[in-house]
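[retry 2/3] Alanine--tRNA ligase: previous attempt timed out, resubmitting with same input.
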Amino acid sequence: MKSGEEEYRLNFFLKNDFKRKICKSCKTPFWTKDEKREYCADIPCTDYYFFDIDIKSSPLTVKEAREKFLSFFEKRGHTVIPPKPVLARWREDLYLTIASIVDFQPHVTSGLVPPPANPLVVSQPSIRLEDIDNVGITFGRHLTTFEMAAHHAFNYPDKYVYWKDETTSYATEFFTKELGIPEEELNFKESWWEGGGNAGPCLEVTVGGLELATLVFMQYKIEENGTYTPLKLKIVDTGYGVERIAWITQKTPSAFHAIYGNLVYKFFDKIGVPYVDEELLKIASRLAGRIDPDNPETIKLHRKMVSEKLGIELKRVDEELDRAAKVFQVLDHTKTIMLMLADGLVPSNSGEGYLGRLVIRRALRVLKLLKSDVRLYELLKEQIDFWKEDFPQVLKNKDYILDAVELEQQRFETILDKIPSIASSLSKKKEISVEDLVQIYDSNGIPPDLLEDELNKRGVKIEVPRNFYALVAKRHQTSRIKDKTEKAKLPKDVIDYAMKLQPTEKLYYKDQYMRSFEGRVIGVHKNYLVLDRTAFYPEGGGQLGDTGFIIDEKRNKKYEVIDTQKVNDVVVHVLKEQPTIDIGDVVKGEINWERRYRLMRHHTVTHIILASAKKVLGDHVWQAGAEKTPEKGRLDITHHKPLSEEEIKLIEDNANKIIADRRPVRAIEINRMEAEMKYGVSIYEGGVPNSATIRLLEIKDWDIESCGGTHVSNTSEIGAVKITNVEKIQDGVIRLEYVAGSALIDYIRETERMLNEASKIIGASPSQLSSRLKRVINEKEENERLLAQYRKMFENIIISNLKPYEINGIKVYIVEGVDDEEEIKEIMRRLTIPQSTIALSISGNRIQIATAENLKVDKIVEELRKIGGRGGGRGTFANIMMENKKSKEEVLEILRKVL
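[retry 2/3] Alanine--tRNA ligase: success.
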């Protein structure tokens, strides 16, 4: 959708003598006060000339730029709100926080819930990986991690805050008054923005070749069919580049110098490469606007210009800038890795973990290309120390960050050992496509440029796309949103029927201990029954649906409820048989209380164990899945390595302390945005509900999280919990299984039964079982040692008594009188150690053949097959089944024929 000129013809521009011009280069309209200006002051239409602009502001660090921005808007009536994590865990469609507006999509932007403040201001750390291959090459124009400082206003039909004129006025005032940029250097370039399902016209603020901000006026929703419909809200969505504000005030040779300060020089030193010629870097940076990373020819042209301007060899320019770009990449990537891990990412082969691993492996690949032996965690240490005041979570989670990164480096080094074998198998292909390279990276984690070196040695040429990592990241950066009805285990016709009915009153929330109730029938479809109210809990959040009975007292009939499911807000009772009940009838429901109470205990203890795992293992632990059945509970958590026995014991001990401490458990209904601001996005561990009001479960001073299940009202009702099994189920995910309450009694009884059974078998009492088992094991080991000796003696006797047959200079032994399969093979092996020997074993229809290394079984097998043999072998051993039993003499005759 293209917007017309009227979208940008603002009163602010007209009143303040801004003129609309068309850029001589890109033909894009822009607004400026400089009557002589012919270009939009954005690259590639111009070089970076902001270095020459007289800016009144003193040089600002990233922290100072952030604080100046927040303070400016706070003084103008905006509420400062804290940023969200870089992992977008309040979204089901996105893994990473790519912009500040992501904080409010989709629930605030759709009008479902109000924003935390209106207007507001935030500086949101963001991560985008679509430009990962361009980092360093453009001197800081492209970054994987950056801070988007933003002020937002949400205009409702009945509440106007501010719109285009005020937004543009704020930008002008901030850049001219706060930063001291001359007003005639300020340009507003007309553009169009789309993201997260929304769209609208925007103005890009450019100064001296640098885009400093984007002012978006979000007013459309993009429908699934691609059409645009007006939003109920008109949203001011701005994005100011904090790092670029720092760069334009510092005027350093690259944005990396402005962002990282002395850390730049420290990284060159730690990586072990010489620092780049700074004069060369300054000239290259000024001309960097001419680089289009998607066009390698522009990179060559840029370097040629640098070479000519400085009068130095092109080869030296290439070496210096290649080295600088790689170090800048490591600087950028390690900061991204730090923020990802600090906010809880666990590297893995799927989801957000895949993206984290991709950045880590790209950093490791760059270090390898630089021939550096520095450990990646050493560089992360420097980043943590540098950013600890800006992002306190990085210091809090330092141990996890360093441990996870070192483990990833060890895995990467193991992977590199596979390169020769992968290259060998690939070299047989006629053509190696980009898809092949992506598949190899996904399956084995091997960087294509490292694979390219190995293939070149084998005479195979491949074309590695320069944006390879961006291509891979794009495939994994979003998550498919699941239709809520997909979760219902119901036939489609039942789902369609239920969706036409009114929502069910949920008695199980009003009183989780309600065992029976009365309800009016509002829907009957086959053996599926819907009531206007119910105490039957429908399956959800990993908790099974209730079972029990529906009693029709009018007809004196009782129907068994074998399951309970939900379609949106309608609860569906699944009956064992089709009922003869009329709509409008009042029936009685009785839930299977013993089963439900077991589920309540297991559901509540799941929350306790999750919080305990976080306290023992770290904040990176996140619920990856859960299931609660009457027999046991199951919790899958994200963690980067197997749990030790001590860690398992601590998780269990902590959980039992909370149970014994009689902590109150209560459900809270709360506004979604208020909940996020108060408790953070960890409330979404069990999933993201799509409602303005959400239900939180609070275990006093221990855990609080969004949950729609049923729970006990006090932790003491759980009784106790025992972790029964811990295993790694996939990369980065650990499964915990446990039993609580009466299920724990069942577990103890079953364990006791097995203990008693084992005691009877071994002939000892349970208390003596351990010492008796040790004795039995010792005896077994001694018997095995003696048996090995006797076997050796037996083999020696057999071998010494065997007389070989001589056939054409080859000794042929026939092994007889041995029944044990392993014994036969060992004797035959020993007999054929000397050259030119053959050993045979004939047992019924079966013939086994072994030969010395200088002989092969192939011809013997071939001859035996001619007379009805099946089976085979190759090399020095064969196993043949004959149709008819062959005598020793017959087999020897065959050998004479062959030999």
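[retry 2/3] Alanine--tRNA ligase: Confidence is low (pLDDT under 50) at residues 480-487.
[retry 2/3] clearing retry counter.
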